[in-house]
Amino acid sequence: MLEQAALAGATMELLGFGLWYYLLGAGWAENAARNLVLPLMVLFQNYHVFNCHSDDRSAFCVSLRSNRVLTMGVVAALGLYLLAMQLPFMQSLLGVAPVTPAQSGGLLLLAANVLMVMELYTLLTRGRSAQRPAPRTPV
Fold first, then answer.
1. What is the pLDDT at residue 15?
2. Is 48 in contact with 118 (CB distance < 8 Å)?
3. What is the pTM of this model?
4. Alpha-helix runs per DSSP H in the chain
């Protein structure tokens, strides 16, 4: 589990900082770049929570209905974030601005990389868990 957390964290870190440095290098103002990186972080977490359903099964093999509370929580949290980006008083309170549909699409694709990296990890390590010896119990 620690390997998975480290790999997911490193993936999110590299992509998040990569986007940050790309935007600043492209001439974006710091506030505008921050406004785009923040929803990326939200999307990373929304994708990654579905990776955490199982240690050895693909996220695509686990039904969204298997944990409806989790699925509804992700939808509700994303909805609240989107609402906060649209309401003027929340925009000023949080220092955010709406993201364009094209930017949203790009962020969805970029954030999906954490899902793909973890799927690859699961595929490559699937046999490892079956090869591990069972833990010994004290006599």
1. 96
2. yes
3. 0.78
4. 2-25, 30-51, 68-86, 88-94, 101-131
